Automatic annotation (TrEMBL):
<dbReference type="InterPro" id="IPR015590">
    <property type="entry name" value="Aldehyde_DH_dom"/>
</dbReference>
<dbReference type="InterPro" id="IPR016163">
    <property type="entry name" value="Ald_DH_C"/>
</dbReference>
<comment type="similarity">
    <text>Belongs to the aldehyde dehydrogenase family.</text>
</comment>
<protein>
    <submittedName>
        <fullName>Succinate-semialdehyde dehydrogenase [NADP(+)] 1</fullName>
    </submittedName>
</protein>
<keyword id="KW-0560">Oxidoreductase</keyword>
<dbReference type="InterPro" id="IPR047110">
    <property type="entry name" value="GABD/Sad-like"/>
</dbReference>
<keyword id="KW-0521">NADP</keyword>
<dbReference type="Pfam" id="PF00171">
    <property type="entry name" value="Aldedh"/>
</dbReference>
<dbReference type="InterPro" id="IPR016162">
    <property type="entry name" value="Ald_DH_N"/>
</dbReference>
<dbReference type="InterPro" id="IPR016161">
    <property type="entry name" value="Ald_DH/histidinol_DH"/>
</dbReference>
<dbReference type="GO" id="GO:0004777">
    <property type="term" value="F:succinate-semialdehyde dehydrogenase (NAD+) activity"/>
</dbReference>
<feature type="domain" description="Aldehyde dehydrogenase">
    <location>
        <begin position="3"/>
        <end position="455"/>
    </location>
</feature>
<dbReference type="InterPro" id="IPR044148">
    <property type="entry name" value="ALDH_GabD1-like"/>
</dbReference>
<dbReference type="InterPro" id="IPR016160">
    <property type="entry name" value="Ald_DH_CS_CYS"/>
</dbReference>
<dbReference type="GO" id="GO:0004030">
    <property type="term" value="F:aldehyde dehydrogenase [NAD(P)+] activity"/>
</dbReference>
Amino acid sequence: MAIATINPATGTTVRTFPELTEAEVEQKIGVAHERWRTYRLTGFDERAECMRAAADLVEKEVDHAAQLMSTEMGKTLASAHGEALKCAHGMRYYADHAAEFLADEVLADPSQVGAERALGRYQPLGVVLAAMPWNFPMWQVMRFAAPALMAGNVGLLKHASNVPQCALYLEDVLRRGGFAEGCFQALLISSGKVEAILRDPRVVAATLTGSEPAGRSVAAICGDEVKHTVLELGGSDPFVVMPSADLDRAVATAVDARVQNNGQSCIAAKRFIVHTDIYDAFTEQFVARMRELTVGDPFDPATDVGPLATEQGRADVEELVDDAIAAGATVLCGGRRPDGAGWFYPPTIIADITRDMRIFAEEVFGPVASLYRAADIEEALEIANATTFGLGSNAWTNDKTEKERFMADLYAGQVFINGKTTSYPELPFGGVKRSGYGRELSTHGIREFCNLKTIWMG
């Protein structure tokens, strides 16, 4: 894929960028490695001052940042504004809490290990490569960059090839915030150059958010090199609705959860599993609300759903929907691309899905909802867990016993009861099964790229 800004609402190429040569990549790795030698010795206060200054810039420039995101990957302008402000919040969160999260851990009774003093100390690992996706082109990056930089690491960013201006903006805003040259660099490269970077001894760890095949590749290379990785590889999140739920709230949230970011979110609800007693009522409202959504120009305030980010992405969605239709699934709304320019796809609901359909097992990265009927909580849980993914999950119920069952038995990295799965700096984020491993955000996210060094003093 060319490194270029291609407006997904029109399909036109706005700007192209040359790929870095091998020599240029080598030079940037060298700069990062040399910078880490001194940056790791800086204090939390100095790092926090730079991070807060960068957050101030993001807030001041929110309109510009939002326009970049909407132009490059098609999210609505309102959504892009929210993403930029979320970045600033995450930056301040780690500026405020890094020293606390990485404080020495002192043993209550060092005499148990024959010491006068024993402690665990968190220290940065070094140069970390981040391979990031286009769907949240600033937030995905910053939720790595903010904790990594506050911990004393330095970062190299291999961003998706269709959001180069977002990548360069993030590098620039951190530099203008006060981070020294080499602390955070965007590498405008194709995926073919990633392996050499991962195998470079100066690069000590990697994090990737993206597809399962990409995760497998990075994990295999880093496993061969014995380097630490954090992987977030997508999901097919269940959204379970039981009879005791507030049906109106559940339906409204279901619509938002499915079409957020034009349906292109790893933690978007994708499989809607509804108890048979309320299935018809839920379906009637769900279909009506999805039909009401406005698909169009992401810069138009009236637009609810913009285009898919890439032409191939729309083709992938169409392929899954067409396969289900051919195998006997029922389309309750949507299901056909509109005429005209751009990579638009309508909000769609598919019912009567069987397990031999690809849509049952594969993640649909677009505004397509799969609808299932469950006879009871046992069947609802069985359907919910019948996936190779395990990132997020949602359950709607006001029954205390059912809440406990869902918290205990939904097999996922996150369970949201009576609410939409989302990410917060304050909460750990990550998955199980083929959704990946490791955690981002919260205390756990900043510690992922630290060496917990045991110190014993006699």
